[in-house]
Write a structure and sequence with these properties.
It is built from five helices and three strands, in the order ααβαββαα. The chain is an alpha+beta fold. It has a single domain, classed as Winged helix-like DNA-binding domain superfamily/Winged helix DNA-binding domain (Arc Repressor Mutant, subunit A), CATH 1.10.10.10. The N and C termini lie far apart (48 Å).
């Protein structure tokens, strides 16, 4: 079996606000971030998220979140586990993640 490459990460200090907002604007990525926020660091493997996309699309969404400085990933055996970079992202964009995480209960777009 082949060895997969380690994921590339972008530190939030290197992320423009437009990239952070674009990453969080997608409903699938927002769901991934919310599920990660509800879990402990390194608890969630990539295949454990309840999102309506295939494996290739899910990999793309994880890559976008990594490049936006929101997500850190590492391999644990055959699993790739995830950590929301909450503290680092908060230092770069104070209040943004908290606002996004609570937006769901504040009557965001697309509701009834």
């Amino acid at each position: 079996m082949g060895h997969r490459a380690e994921p590339e990460h972008t530190h939030p200090e290197q992320v423009p606000v437009q990239a952070a907002l674009a990453a969080l604007a997608d409903p699938v990525r927002l769901r991934l971030v919310r599920e990660l926020a509800a879990a402990g660091d390194w608890e969630r493997a990539c295949g454990t998220f309840d999102v309506p996309v295939g494996k290739a699309a899910l990999s793309h969404h994880f890559a976008v979140l990594r490049s936006a400085g929101l997500l850190e990933q590492r391999d644990q055996g055959p699993r790739r586990v995830n950590r929301l970079r909450r503290a680092e992202f908060e230092a770069r964009f104070p209040g943004l993640l908290e606002l996004v995480l609570r937006e769901e209960t504040a009557g965001g777009t697309g509701g009834e």
